[in-house]
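Hello everyone,

My group is preparing for a crystallization screen and wants a predicted model to guide construct design. The compound we'll soak is flavin-adenine dinucleotide. Before spending weeks at the bench, it would help to have a computed complex in hand. I've included the protein sequence and the ligand's SMILES below. Output in structure-token form would be ideal because that's what our pipeline reads.
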Amino acid sequence: MGGQGDVAIIGAGITGLTCARALADAGLRVAVFDKGRGPGGRMSTRRTDGGLQFDHGAQLLPARDPDFAAWLADGGHAAPWPGQHGWVGRPAMAAIPRAMAQGLDLHQGAAVNRLIRRDGLWHLGGEGIDHRAARVVLAIPAPQARDLLGGDDPLSADLAQVRFHASVTVMAALDPDAPRPFVTRRGQGPLAWIAQDGTKPGRAGQPLTTWVVQADPDWSMAHIDLPFDELAAMIAPLLLAELGARPDQLRHAAAHRWLYAQAERPLGRAFLQDDARGLIVGGDWALGPLAEHGWASGRAMAAHLLARAS
Ligand SMILES: Cc1cc2nc3c(=O)[nH]c(=O)nc-3n(C[C@H](O)[C@H](O)[C@H](O)COP(=O)(O)OP(=O)(O)OC[C@H]3O[C@@H](n4cnc5c(N)ncnc54)[C@H](O)[C@@H]3O)c2cc1C
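Reply:
Good plan to model first. Here are the tokens for the complex, ready for your pipeline.
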């Protein structure tokens, strides 16, 4: 992954992809790097060999900004979740970022772990990565941006103000005849959110009933280091109790850990920038805890870069 371009974007979640699309549409040479196997970051979908799928990151996208609602409606890969107040990707949350990534110069499985400015250019390094760009966009969670830039970077103090909470998320599947008393609900004890994932549009035809459960931030942080199977074994009985289902009706339970799930103390402005160095840093955490905030941050970063380019 060698080369040189106008802008390098690190992070192919909704923030980085929104920014990348606007810059590429304006004719800039943009390369996007993401350490994940596919684009999307926290707007992600887990599939199992048994034909199940779960949105185990973002659940339901509120669209308070009418522009964001219009963008979701126009893309053809999102739909309102009937009875809920928001949108979801169709047929999976990951369908939204996958569609956004079409046609972009996206490098997947590309973890950038060195970022150095030399002779007026940013040099990106990592395993198999040797890329240069005049400007760089960091579209990754603030703590990870701080790690990459280093604690003595001038933007580091502002990045350190941002706080995230963690989320332990469990994906469970039950027999079709198991009770399904609700679509979404806040649960008892540590269960912050329970959703019948398979009721989202475009998910019909799965062999089992699929549920996604998020533990609350305190419980998640206290248990974040436990192995996945232990986490699943702790949360699954609580889900069964909420549903009034029997243990023998549980067919699948797997856990995922999000150390940086959602911002609980955002930055309060759309991005941080250092124009002299050609550096701009943003994400959902700049404005709030939601995908909508990442989209707004990505859009604002692109507008800032384009204004300076013209
Ligand atoms: C459990 C959970 C539930 C949520 N629920 C909701 C919800 O219901 N509604 C809602 O609107 N939002 C929700 N969110 C938040 C939503 O997912 C985020 O706001 C949004 O996805 C953030 O997008 P982003 O592009 O800013 O960051 P991310 O999606 O985190 O993207 C950053 C990308 O950068 C990559 N990356 C990081 N470091 C590097 C590196 N060094 N090199 C290369 N790549 C790197 C990562 O792989 C990732 O793909 C939830 C999040 C979680 C985790």
